[in-house]
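User: Teach me something about this protein's shape.
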Amino acid sequence: MGAWHKLNLSIFKKVLSVGSGKLAQELDKKVELINNLESEVEKYSDEEIKNKFQDLKTKITNENKFDYEVEAFSLVREASKRTIGQRHYDVQLFGGMVLLRNRIAEMKTGEGKTLVSTLPISFMSLFEQGVHVVTVNDYLSRRDAEWMSPIYNFLGLEVGLIYSNQEYQEKVSEYKKDIVYGTNNEFGFDYLRDNMAQSSEQLTQGNLFYAVIDEVDSILVDEARTPLIISGRVEESTKWYLQFSKFVKQMNKNFHYEVDESKKQIHPTEDGIEFIEEKLGIDNLYENTSTNFIHYLTASLRAKEIYKKDVDYIVSDGQVKIVDEFTGRVLEGRRYSDGLHQAIEAKENVSIQDENQTLASITYQNYFRMYEHLAGMTGTAKTEEEELIQIYNLEVVEIPTNLPVARNDNQDTVYKTKKAKLNAVVDDIKYRHEMGQPVLLGTVSVDSSEEISKELTKK
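Assistant: First, the predicted structure itself:
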């Protein structure tokens, strides 16, 4: 242990060099205490580990919780060794303590964020107020819940899983468990549904006590202002969307309207307003109270100019389906609000569904700020730290790797033409495939993926 700890000290010097020095020194000492306890904890029977962990419930308060983290983390580490055969590295213990202190742990890919999270998740479940583990998609929620459940079950904790289109009674049951895995979408929508409930018996989610967010920068920064919306159907004719879709095809950018790409907004000019008034045979577009022509115009213009097929959405089975710009996945069942989806349906000449009105809405930013305790993990958050501190009071702590990084991060390569870039990408993939190397290829759109796929097929 002594020789290894000398290596470990050099690792924590890296933390000292990037800030959070006082915190690093404090946590380094606690890691050493956990290591010193390991030989004793190894002698406990399975039942003793479970009982000792459960006994902490009677001792822990929010004020004294850090007095018990060494004991709790030691028991969780041993539970992990006995169930899934994985022993938390010292840097992982360090990361777990960072999460317990309502901070963001920035960890390199492959350093075991999922295992790290079991430490604070188990610990905070002792308060019996519910722990929410937030992931970016249903697959990861299910995978992580199933993967880590043996550890939690060994300690006497129950694990729940929430997902889209889940039966109401099942969801109520899952939320009552000690630890609940789910996506940011599902947690947010369940909160909205609870706020629309007619009685306390219809509530599902319970307290917003402690949340650990995976890929925290994606959820709290990239998608922070994305509104979650629950809508209700409005009975209204779809003829105006079809009519305005034809009108806007005849309108010209920078003459009839101006486009604000950054805000995804359209502003009709006076010439544009006069053009529509002439088409409709009316004197003043703004005076018609029975039909909101401006609403149809702006929605149709946004559909024409800002929302692109095979980038923002795809057309499949006669339906317009939204593509998640961050993951590239199709968001089944999701629709744009404020008439935009109907305008796109008119643009793409598919069946137009009834327009909806907003019944309840909240942004991820406002939702996650309601948690009493909040922490997160990611591989890239330091560059967003100022925003994370300002909005959520979440400091980012860089967690050093367990071993030196063997990966080479090469400089960007720039090509004169798109064709030259595409050829170089395909040639490099072919070469690495022949070498037996796995390749992860990321693109910005469905269209780009299909283009590269065709070139790879040719090879």
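Now, about its shape. The radius of gyration is 27 Å. Residues 1-11 have pLDDT under 50 and may be disordered. If you'd like, I can walk through any region in more detail.
User: That's plenty for now, thanks!
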